[in-house]
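Tutorial handout. Part one gives the primary structure; part two gives the three-dimensional structure as tokens.
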Amino acid sequence: MFHNKRERLAFASLLLLIFILTLSWKYYQFHTLKSAQTPQITAQVLLQYTKINQSGRYFVLKLKSDFGTFYTTSREDLRDIQYRYISLRISTKRLTFMEFLRGFYAPNFTLILLPQRDFRESLRNFITKQHDTALMGDYYSSLFLADGLPKEWRKLAQAYGIAHLFAISGFHTGILSAIGFFILGFLYKPIHRRFFPFRNFFFDVGCVVILGLVGYYFLLTQSFSYLRALTMSFVLFVLFWRGLNLWNIETLMWCVAILVAFSPTLIFSLGFHLSWLGVLYVFLFFKTFKIPAGFWGKTLYGFLLNTSTFFLMNNIVFYFFPIFSPLMLSSVLLTPLFTLYYPLALFAHCVGFGGFLDSLLLMWLQTNPHTVPLQTHFTWLILCAILTCIAPYFRLGFFSLLGLSFGFFGYGVYLYFYGF
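Part two.
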């Protein structure tokens, strides 16, 4: 991407300036919100769920507004208003700028349901009508529209270590790009041969695929992991066109810096950090092991890549989500199988037969696998972070990190069978 340190410094300075400007805009929004002690705002309900405490049952609402994402609660007997728009008056008396950036809680005084609807409601209805149960409709809405995953599926995904399959990110972007290249390439090839033989076939198709991915981002409206993947896809496409090295850790770091510069709230997004860390571990594997020749060699390489990424990510995932089951090892097989299942399910929904696997999936959901608590100690997390920083420069760092990851998973297996 750059020829020397001067170019890197100039670009870093530009990103720093953008970061300061966007952070200043965020502070202006914060000041505007704070200037009115009880501002009246309009927001969309992203999530709605119930909780119970000593005072009784109440609703928790996750809202998206022009001021960012925040939470509020209501003890009213609300119907299902998820994805609907509401008008509410909130209190910002104790709100700090750091909480504003991170995503805050604000008590409300009034809550009014507005008539306007989410533009994706017709798509949700189209998906839901193809299933006999609302649970399966919500499952596929999460898979295709980045909606919140139902609690039942979330528990199963954690037990099997496949939560990453439901967070639309680089993995899904790769599948969608492959589908786009296959379909558009098939349609464009005869046109290219007859009318545009002088143009680069892959560049034309690649541009349309990138535009399609951008359009899909606006359809999702809010997915930090997909935003990282989209930015990475665009940068990789530009680098490929310029004949430069694609699988470069520095490229990933610049993509992360660009996104943070334009959206400082990403600093507090756990999903965003897990997303780019997963790509980092993929790049570390590429750097440590060269892709072999031959079909079976590449197949084994892909299997080992998936296995390595799974174990390396566990050190971080268990710190934030301390739920363990040996069934998580099945993720090594379920993840590559997902590359077949995802486009098949997408096609089935497009032609109106989305419920063809519902009975099997519901049977799987009813297995209710046993899990035990397993949390990464902070000291262990720091050690893994240090080894991650060393790994790009020394192979020993990568192998040490991988060995610790295997050992930690083995400790979880021991706790599962003998510790509880």
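Part three, for discussion. The chain has 15 helices and eight strands. The mean pLDDT is 88.
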